[in-house]
Amino acid sequence: MTNLDIEIDDKGILIPESEQTAVSLLDGHARIRVPGNTTRDSFTVVEHTGQRGYNTPLHYHHIEDEVFMVLDGALRMVCDGQEQLAEAGTTMVIPRMVPHGFVAISNEIRFLTIHSTPDLGNKPQFDLFLAAEMPAAQATRMPTEEIGPDLDHIISLGTTYGYSYAGPAPMP
Asked: In degrees rounded to 5, what are phi and psi of residue 80?
């Protein structure tokens, strides 16, 4: 894994794929495309890839709003108790403190999540969580048989990274 040590200026920054952290996450693959430290800690962007069944349990973020942008495939999203189908080309905006989760219902899925922190003094936590707690991915895009931390361990990290468990993952 690579940690970008970047001094931010007003000229912009190019982040080569080789400098992006990629990890295994709950039977999927997550690549930190834009870490918070490159945006003055205002947002982070993560690309997710996985196969049918890739999911997260219901959870909510304490300080981050989250946007899902489905690029390929389809997700069954549960947001505040309402189930919705998110297909390629759709975007879902989830305010902080709203319970949500997803499951991939297509054979393969690719989507972006954008985590923003609207309050001054807070910074995105999701990229910090991924980089510090999840194992480096061996595959470049799709997950392999890599095994990461179990769900109970991930749930226990919530107080450190500003999220809370809210229930089991949706089923495909």
From this structure: 55, 40
For 113-172, the pLDDT digits (tens) are 999 987 777 877 888 888 877 877 775 555 555 555 678 888 888 888 888 999 998 988
Using CA atoms, how far apart are residues 34 and 23, in angstroms rounded to an integer? 14
Q: Which residues contact 71 (CB under 8 A, 6 or more apart)?
A: 88, 110, 111, 112
Closest to 151 measured CA to CA, from 125, 127, 133, 131: 133
pTM for this structure? Answer: 0.86
Amino acid found at 45: V
Closest CA to 138 of 29, 18, 19: 29
